[in-house]
Amino acid sequence: MRRLLAALLLAILVGLIALHFGLVGTGHWAVDEFIVIRSYRDNGWPAFVDRLMTWSPRPISELLIWAYACLVNWQHKPFIGFSLALLWLTLILAPLISFLQIRKPFSEHSRGSILFFYLFAFALIGFLLLGHNPGELFYWPIGAAAYLTTLSAITVCFFQTALSLTESHTGRMITSLSLIFAAGSSETGAFFAVAFGCLSLTGMAVDAVRGSYSERKLFWCLVPVIVGTGIFGLLVQNRAQSQEAALAAAEYHNFYLSLKAALGQTINEYLVTGQRLSSHGVILGLLLKACFFLGVRYCWLSTGIRSPRKQALLVFGISIIATTYFSIAASYYAYGEATNDRHHELRQCLIVLLITIVALFSCHYHLPTFETPRPQWFGTLFVFVALVLVVPERFSALKHDYRNYSASVENRRKSWNSGLSDGNTMIWYSPPPGRMVKAYMIEPGTYDLDSNPSARVMPLMHFFQKQRLEIRPFIATGN
Q1: Alpha-carbon Rg of the chain, whole angstroms?
Q2: Among candidates 292, 254, 303, which has minimal Cα distance to 130?
Q3: Which residues pair with 425 in a beta bridge?
Q4: Domain carrying residue 417
Q5: Cβ contacts of residue 79 below 8 Å, gap of 6+?
Q6: What is the mean pLDDT of residues 99-110?
Q7: Measured between alpha carbons, how far is 148 from 154 in angstroms, rounded to an integer?
Q8: Are residues 48 and 141 both part of a single domain?
Q9: Closest to 65 in 3D by CA, of 202, 338, 55
Q10: Are 28 and 439 in contact, with CB atoms under 8 Å apart?
């Protein structure tokens, strides 16, 4: 009975992930796509090299963006759903990359153990979506190329750590590659790779003192540290002094005040799932995190898999905490406030990974007489309760966006057809406002290129090479 309920719960989780995945077709462009893809179209490789060397020295994400731009410029279609689907799959398949490495040891376990491993894995993937509003991180192509790739790489590193796969040569190579991909995708990934690598090297130094050090195990984390340090250094050099403040704030380009302000904001984001601190938000956030913690803890105990070393879990956990704090401090330093939804959404995902790490750490402490059926019941129960806390509100948002799915796709098609048509004028049909997918919204009206329109309008006109642009508002039809 308990395995049947666990299988049903697993099916619900997979179904929820699929429902979120199904909305990639309504993903949106922002001003970045219109600027970057046009520059690659008009200037070719020099534009790519210039952006890589002077503004965004993130080779992995920039190569992904360049490949996407080439496809768009070749076919003259946005390919939003296609590009986002590929990036989503890297995250969804992250547990399978590690699972394939342990297929032989798993043959010693029962089918029930494998079932609860999948429940553990997809509860984690599911709550990376359900623990907060996915927004830009999952539904914006250029943002996803950098930050969803970062999340996928860190998630692969998590499963490698959780399953103790760094004890084998192949496992260390895959973990090292995941860290390099994280470092090459974003500044957040670069910092995580450096923090994780340095802490791992510190642990190796401690092992050397104890006489259990192996020189061959050094390079798998040393290389990501070198790569991450280089990328992080270039990012600081290129962006730190040139970034304009979002508002006049004392924290802007003030190292000490940025660190001070980031401390309170970090605590805020760890307490609540959204950005607003309130009594209701704190209680709901803590209750959700507690149920998720207990759910993944008991699911892991139900697998019968040996818990990873405490040192490895501490290294990963401290790296996550340092990375979330750095992300907020860097935002205060560069902009004067904690800005950009994609950064906030990535931090919320990292917090979910941290809770899972703490749950695995707690698995070292349980009663030796703890019978297997009991954690299986507890794991299923607490994951179900966590879903009950978030699914009703999320289902309402999903229902809203699916109701507007066809209108969103149709308005995009008409806008692109108008933009690619002959002549100097075009019509942009505003998409319906989404609750899950935030569309690129421009104030309705008529714009002329000679009248110096706003920064949100001009890149669109340059991209389609038009002199006049009419923005038509979305008008909902009766259901």
Answers
A1: 23
A2: 292
A3: 468
A4: 405-472
A5: 68, 71, 72
A6: 60
A7: 10
A8: yes
A9: 55
A10: yes
